[in-house]
Amino acid sequence: KAGVVVAIDGPSGSGKSSTSRGVAQRCGLEYLDTGAMYRAITHWMLEQDVDVSDPNAVAQHVHRPRIAMGRDPQMPTVSVDDRDVAAEIRSEWVTGQVSAVSAVPEVRQRLVADQRSLIDAAVESGNGIVVEGRDITTVVAPHADVKLYLTASTQARASRRSDERQTEDVAATQAALERRDRLDSTRSTSPLTQTEDAVELDTTGYTLAEVIDVVADLVAQVR
Ligand code: C5P
Q1: Torsions phi, psi of 128, nearest 5?
Q2: Collapsed DSSP state (helix, strand, coil) of residue 187
Q3: Start and end of every Cytidylate kinase domain (predicted)?
Q4: Rounded to whole angstroms, how far apart are CA atoms 166 and 10?
Q5: How many angstroms does the Cα of residue 101 sit away from the middle of ligand 1?
Q6: Which residues participate in the annotated binding site for ATP?
Q7: Is 30 helix (H, G, I), strand (E, B) or coil?
Q8: For 195-209, what is each residue's pLDDT tens digit?
Q9: In this structure, are strands 77-80 and 83-84 parallel, antiparallel, or unpaired?
Q10: How far lies 28's CA from each of 21, 97, 216, in Å?
Q11: Torsions phi, psi of 80, nearest 5?
Q12: 3-state helix/strand/coil string of 111-177
């Protein structure tokens, strides 16, 4: 069999990234963080002073930045025009604006096309790939071999995020996270939605190792 495609969607803080990387590492697959691509394009727009609240302005510049994604799960990288932006794309500045940019249809068209070429390449030339995001099971790779929807209670998601960011303010983190989820699930183009045929995994109360075991088993079944 050619390489497998593992598609993982879910809201922020559901454990997508750690799970996806862990599964990719365990199963010898590539790893693609599509959220990092939306963050990278947002960062570029903000640096260029594009008014990101104006969808027409965003659409006009969408093809200018060159985004390169390193797909090694041990050390995923993201660069824009040959500059490493891995740290900058996690800033509050970018996090606060990314939902507006990712709601622009032209942005999604461009990035979905980029994502599909990376997936095709991983399937043709290697073992396959784990892809995480919001519309992977529904739009980017609806025919993936394994389709997962990760959830966790809002409190669990907020406290994981606060640990990651090393902030004490769990309440503020939770408010920001709920705002982003609301924007991501109510936009008209490819909102975050759960499909019938995706396996739902509620990670509340489970350790990362336990979740990785479950998903790695699902991957082993389709290989
Ligand atoms: O996964 P992460 O939180 O880094 O994603 C950042 C943002 O990128 C999300 O809040 C969402 O607006 C957007 N996104 C998206 N579609 C994806 C992945 C991320 O719209 N497949």
Answers
A1: 125, -165
A2: coil
A3: 6-220
A4: 22
A5: 10
A6: 10-18
A7: strand
A8: 889 999 999 999 999
A9: antiparallel
A10: 10, 34, 11
A11: -120, 125
A12: HHHHHHHHHHHHHHHCCEEEEEECCHHHHHCCCCCEEEEEECCHHHHHHHHHHHHCCCCHHHHHHHH
